Amino acid sequence: MAASESPAGPPAELQTLPELRTPAALARQHGITRALAFGAHPDDIDFGAAGTIAALTAAGVEVTVCLLTSGDAGGFEPGRDSQAMARLREAEQREASALLGVRDVLLLDERDGFVKPTDELVGKIVRVMRQVRPEVVISPHPERAWDRLQKSHPDHLACGEAVVRAAYPYVENPFAYPELLAEGLEAFKIRHLLLTTAPQQQVNLRLDVTGQESLKMAALRQHFSQHPDAQRMEGFVLDQMRQIHGGAGYAEEFHWVTVNAPDTISGF
Predict the structure, then answer these.
(1) Cα(201)–Cα(189) distance, rounded to whole angstroms?
(2) Which Pfam families does the entry link to (predicted)?
(3) Closest CA to 134 of 102, 112, 100, 87
């Protein structure tokens, strides 16, 4: 090495990584006791946030899972009809969620492959939000990620858009969906969104789930109908988690959005 040269620092991509935190620390800081995770299909939530969910439930946070579709258009086995696939995938999700410490799995009735952020769907999501009343909502990101287009299935984008619309303004507007108020489901304010599958430039939070990676893999294995090469899938996911961590552990990445902070003024 020449005298004028300095030792090489860490790779540029590691210099710009967001702060690494644990899910338990995040929950303590923001007073999170309940979380609600939305996915367009069975396995979406487990790919994006299973390690985080396992860590949250271990820390005493109550997590509810809500799927927009039953995933009846998925799978690789020829000859299986869509109703049978829907029943199988619902069972797979319930088994996967149970491994992560999740007791409640809700299922809406959107059509797999054709999810749209309609007023009707937003209303269904608002209903679930008002029933669960979480501090944080986990969801796919509504923006397309060009760095890996597979993250941005149209159903994922539609799910993210519908969830974000529901989180603001509809869930907190007592005049929106008045039939819900008539049922006793009162308006309230979502504090935070934890968005998976984000475009890389939107990622601003890494959660260290080291020690939960085996539970994440166990949850993903429950979705056996979707993985013709489970070993390759597991290797890819673990490699991604190591890269996100940037060190010797495993992490998941998110776009963390504060919807309502103590100083938030409605409309601004």
Answers:
(1) 27
(2) PIG-L
(3) 102
